[in-house]
Amino acid sequence: METVANENIEDLKKKLSKLEFENTNLKDELLAVQNSLYLQHTIAKLNYSVVLNREEIKAKELTAGINEKQGSLFEIKNQIRKYAPILGLDPDGIRIIVTEAIQNIIEHGYGPYAEVALELNNLAPNPYFKISFKHEMEPGKAYTLAQIEENAKKGDITSEAFDWENPRGRGEFMMKEIADERQIINGVEYDETGRKIHYFKRILINYKNPKGERVETSFDEIREEIDRLDKDEVVCYFHIDHKKSELDSFTVITSSETDNSVKQIMDEAGFQLTHKDNYSKTSFCTYKPNRVVSIEEIKQLFASIRKTVTAEMQHKLSN
Predict the structure, then answer these.
(1) Rounded to a whole number, what is the largest CA-CA distance in the chain?
(2) Residue 92 to residues 85, 96, 249: CA-CA distances in angstroms?
(3) Which H or E element spans position 259?
(4) Based on the domain organization, do 135 and 277 belong to the same domain?
């Protein structure tokens, strides 16, 4: 009996030793980027993107109680978490905002697909980690920063609208708190079949130095969309830059012929024109608020500008 017991103990020791060896390898793999003496200096830029079958994930994974490690989102979230240490960013914090953003577009998005893209720029004066999330919107629908702020209040324990049972509010609040900068784009494009797609795109940015220089907003994507539109289509885009909890700037993209009307609306609302670019027959006009602007006022601005631009273009086409 004693010999059998000794053999069992030896077997258990071997199994334990094997598990310890495997655990060490897993830790090394997980921390490989974080502990590397080279990658923080040798990776200048990194891009990672994936298109997800949103409806498939929603139907078969989100409510099925599956093993997370076998799910579609696990590898994506870990890839993004893996590269955060290159800029000295907290990988768990980055993973939290990615998790919330991906689950948000899977659960609350529209259409068959969702896109996730990561850009790591280690060459910028203040290196940054930019993650974007994009999904289709129902035609005519738009998700504004004002609505995002309202949802975030439901996850803010200091807010009168606090509702911890509301997962969307909790997710919006976490993204707001952890990301250094948030941007949204409500855009229009054509897919490979020629079908017009209305989409929502959320952009979250974290900087190596949160108080340092910020990356200049790129409007290349909107310019590409303008190129795809018919010449008689009304152009009216809004792009909002949001630094932490404050509105930083508000860019209006419309036909150049409506510049004066839009500027008058923005002047009356307490915004100052700070930058203007012309592209084709359109203008990209960026305004900064010279006072605190409420969420309700931003909603009214959206409505006023759309109404004015549409009316002027219809008047032009009817003559």
Answers:
(1) 104
(2) 10, 6, 29
(3) helix 259-268
(4) no
